[in-house]
């Protein structure tokens, strides 16, 4: 199975587009932008867009309707673009999957089409990649090219936020970009909205540089479940919340090894802050010594856990990490960790 990534698709759609693609994975925001890139590449002339660009959603889609859209030739263009969004592939019955594959098989004959099926992150169980793709993904990949939109890394997300600020006409340091993500969460739709809001507030104040106060004053804190929320629940001894957060990450198929690495990193940050605070350092001095944003330092100081408790937790995490790397079911290891802390 040939699974490509977003960057591969963006290059391909401009030069040699294939007949069909399946957008799947965690980053729905990037899927929407990739759809727009396909529209710009294949249907640049809005005069003929009504003939060469067809869109289906969950209400208008059927395999027969897709076939009807595939058959007509493009007008004054080399290709047509057909997009299908809003489908819940998890609810597809075998007959529905077969009908979709039958429709896609016609693209060999009507080779002037590019069909893009974009599925939301929670609407398609694609299995465990790359070794154990789901049966439906394997079946569909015979007729289209899967495009995997993986969860964007924190470093790339910070860079993206910086570019978003620049696009809006304001400047933001690397620390401000990290603070924005830490406070607003990693959902790119929310980040885009919050970054716009912060930018326009700064411009309305007659300034062009974002400060930490701007981020805290204007943005809405995220209430998302992630490894940071998990480690916070662990260190505070809130087992019920820790299990709830882990259940959410398990549902989203977050790699247990990634969860563990972020937990250890967060506990190490908290321990470093408390050790320096016990040594008499101020919040500013701790921030400078650890190269950590002062806002995050203040949060860690407010939620003080105790040096001995954090050291004990770190040792238990180290043991669990070794077990995790030898286990087939990493989530069970994490559940056992919750019960021992």
Q: Can you walk through the features of this model?
A:
With 341 residues, the chain is an alpha/beta fold. Helices cover 57% and strands 10% of the residues. The protein has 17 helices and eight strands. The chain has a six-stranded parallel sheet, with helices on both faces. Strands 6-7 form a two-stranded antiparallel sheet. Helix 4 links the parallel strand 3 and strand 4. Helix 7 packs across helix 8 and helix 12 packs antiparallel against helix 17. The longest helix has 23 residues. The protein is flat. The two termini are 42 Å apart. The mean pLDDT is 89.
The run of helices and strands is EHEHHEHEHEEEHEHHHHHHHHHHH
Number-wise, the strands total 8
Helical percentage: 55-70%
Low-confidence stretches: none
Distance between the termini: 42 Å
- Tally of alpha and pi helices: 17
What order do the strands of the largest sheet run in, or round the barrel if closed?
A: 1-8-2-5-4-3
- Major sheet, described briefly? 6 strands, parallel
Q: Evaluate the radius of gyration.
A: 24 Å
Q: What does the overall shape look like?
A: flat
SS class: alpha/beta
Look at the structure and give the mean pLDDT: 89
- What percentage of the residues does DSSP assign to strands (E)? 5-15%
Write the layout of secondary structure elements.
Elements: E1 4-5, H1 6-15, E2 20-25, H2 28-42, H3 49-52, E3 53-56, H4 63-70, E4 80-85, H5 94-105, E5 113-118, E6 127-128, E7 132-133, H6 135-140, E8 145-149, H7 154-167, H8 174-184, H9 188-204, H10 212-218, H11 227-235, H12 239-251, H13 256-278, H14 283-290, H15 294-302, H16 307-324, H17 330-340
Parallel strand pairs: 1-8, 2-5, 2-8, 3-4, 4-5
Antiparallel strand pairs: 6-7
